[in-house]
Structures are given as C-alpha cells and as structure tokens.
Amino acid sequence: MKTGNHPRTEKRIFGFNRNIFYTGLTSFFTDTSTKMVYSVMPMFLLSIGASKTSLSLIEGIAESTASLLKSFSGYWSDKLGKNKPFLLIGYGLSSLIIPLYAWAATPMHVLYLRFVERIGKGIRSAPRDSLVAASVTEGETGKSFGLQKTMDNSGAILGPLIAFALLALFPGNYRIIFILAAIPGFLGILVILSGVREARRNKTNLIREFHLKDLPGKFYLFLLVIFIFTLGNSTDALLLVKANEVGVKIAFIPLVYLISSVVSVLFAIPMGALSDKIGREKLLITGYLLYAVVYFGFGITRSIAVIILLFAVYGMYSALTDGIQKAYVSDVIEENKKGTGMGIYNAVLGITLLPASLIAGLLYDKVNSSVPFYFGACTAMISAVLLFFLCRNQKKPSPIHE
C-alpha cells in the first residue's frame, strides 16, 4: 500500500522527507521544553501538598479530557486537507502555558494549566501524525515514525539534563526551570513556520463525511488491545516517585528519567525500520512483554541499581511500541482518513489514561507501592497474548507488505 504522495526525487534531509525531518525537529524542541518540566513535576507537586492519588489524577484528567480534541482535530485536518494550522495552534498553546507553571501555588493550579496545555496537544497530535503519514516514501512508514520517536526522546534527554543542571545551581528551585522551559518551546514554533509544508493531497479525495464503519475492523481490534494495555500504563510520574522512594535523591531524578530516553533514541529508528521489513505485530508483542517485565520489576525491587536497569529496559519498550503503533494505524487506514484514524487512536490513549491513573494512584496510596506496577504488568501480558491471537487469525500480514 502506498503511504505517501511525494516522489523519491524530492530533496531529503539526512535521508528523510523535509516534512518528516522538520516535524521531528519541532518534536525535539517541544519535548526538551516539556521534559524539563515533567522530570521535576512529581517532586514539585508533592512539595506543594499533592498526594500520590492527586498526582495521578492531575495527569489523567488533563490527558483524558483534552484527548477528545484529538479525534476532532484529526477529522477536520482530513476534511480541510491541511495540517500546518493545527500544528501552529497546538504547539503555540502548549508553549505559552509551560512558563506559567512557575506561578502555580496549589495542585489545582497545576491541574488547570495542565489541562490547557494538553488541549494544545489534542489539537496538534493527530494532524502531525497525519502529516507524517502523508509525507513518507513508500515502504518507510515505520522508519519515519521511528524518527519522530527518536527526536521526541532526544528532547527527553536534553530536557532532564537541563533540569538537573538548574537544580544543581538552584537547589529546590523548580520555578526557574518552568520559566526557562519556554525557550525551546518557542524555537519549535519557529521550525514549523519556516520548515514545515503542507503535504500534497488530491483535493477530490478529501473526506466529505465520516462514519465509524468507514474504518476497518482490524483498526478497532487493535484499539481494543491498546485500551487494555493503556489501562495499566498510568503516568510515568509514579515511576519517578518510586525511584525516589527506593533511594534516588531528588536532584538525580531527572537523570534517572532520561536513561529510558537515551535507550529509546538509540533504537527507535532501527526498530521502526525493522518493522517495515518483518511486520509491526512481532515487535509490538515484544514491547508489551518487556513492559510487563519492567513493571513487575518496579513492583518487586528495592534496589537503586535495579531501578536504573529497569528504566533502561523501559526505553527499549518505548522504541518497540510508540512509533510502531502509529505506523500500524497508518498502514490499515485509507489515505484520506489517516488524520481521523490517528485522532481516534490518540483519543483512546488519552481517555484511557484517566481510569488508568485513578486505579494506579488509589492502589499506590490505599494498598501499597507495588500493586499498581503488578496491575500494569498483568494488563501488558493480556495485551501481548490478545495481539498474538489476533495476528494468528489474520490471513494477511500488515498492509505495508501487500
């Protein structure tokens, strides 16, 4: 199945279509900004009176409510045949909100700001993924989404490093991190303005109206797997809290956080390219199984060394799943409905985070710190088994091989 409209003769940057490269660069700057904030946000929230449950709920409510926008923004980008305006609005809104965390005095203030910031993500996510899918050269979908994940995680490396340096210079001063995090965010906006172009589309093929039955059954079966998996995949903030409880000092929490990002950067593109050759499902099943091992390990260990190792394995899980899941969705959906499909996929991820975060937070506070991780390990195992049997019942491999 052809996945892009661009000829191979178009100028490429480091082997990638310019849109794929520049959207990746935008993700790099944006993730540098957000991970400067998120790598210290759990500790900041605890310092202003948040409980483990409220910490999880802040993430879950903001992600889930704003995620409803992802399906709508994807549909409208398909209907209009344009993606760039959604990227500008979405990234711009998030960049404006980031420095305002510096003035948050209560967990509720953080919730309000987090909610608005996630609206920005809801506006941009599906149109960005649709733009990438429409810009890839045939046979390179996994590799292209792998680049997006690599650039995301490169920012997720630099952001915590900057946060660590700032905490070393200004111990306990989280607010200066929030203010300075605005700089890379606005650099990302400049990249969109100067580097990203609309993908060429056949205007006669634009979506006119949409019904759920327009998307294939294979897509909805995959969403079921994603729902079950995400139900046990609560906010990463709890991983950082657990690391601190095991004995990692607060100043080093950002460094622990970036370990998984380093591993993901090293393997995201190779794993994406491998999925182009052997199919998505095998790597996704492997990724879910690795996740189960990591979460079981977080539940059982009391060792700092083991925690560091688990963060590294967590990075491999990320390389095996995040970009490849999007490539899988792109494979099974028609060209003129990719934004809509990406929106529904992103919405399911975000909406499921609310019950996932509520379950994990309550288990952490009301039972003990190990149970939410055991729960996540179980849902990951169920997802891996379900995807395995779904694949066995399919007569054809992923459409990329057709």
Describe the sheet with the most strands: 2 strands, antiparallel
Strand fraction band? under 5%
Number-wise, the strands total 2
Lateral strand order in the biggest sheet: 1-2
Measured between the Cα atoms of the first and last residue, the distance is 6 Å
Regions with little confidence, pLDDT below 50 for 5+ residues: 1-9, 395-402
Can you identify the CATH class? Mainly Alpha
Q: Which class of secondary structure composition applies to the elements? A: mainly alpha
Can you tell me the CATH architecture? Up-down Bundle
Helix content: over 70%
Care to describe what's here?
It is built from 15 helices and 2 strands. By secondary structure, the protein is mainly alpha-helical. The chain is globular and about 50 Å long. The chain has a two-stranded antiparallel sheet. Strand 1 and strand 2 form a beta hairpin. It has helices at residues 18-38, 41-47, 52-80, 84-97, 107-135, 141-169, 174-180, 182-195, 217-231, 237-246, 253-278, 280-300, 304-332, 338-367, 371-392, and strands at residues 12-13, 16-17. The chain is 75% helix and 1% strand. It has one domain (17-197, 213-395): Growth Hormone, Chain: A (Up-down Bundle). It starts with 11 loop residues before the first strand and ends in a 10-residue tail after the last helix.
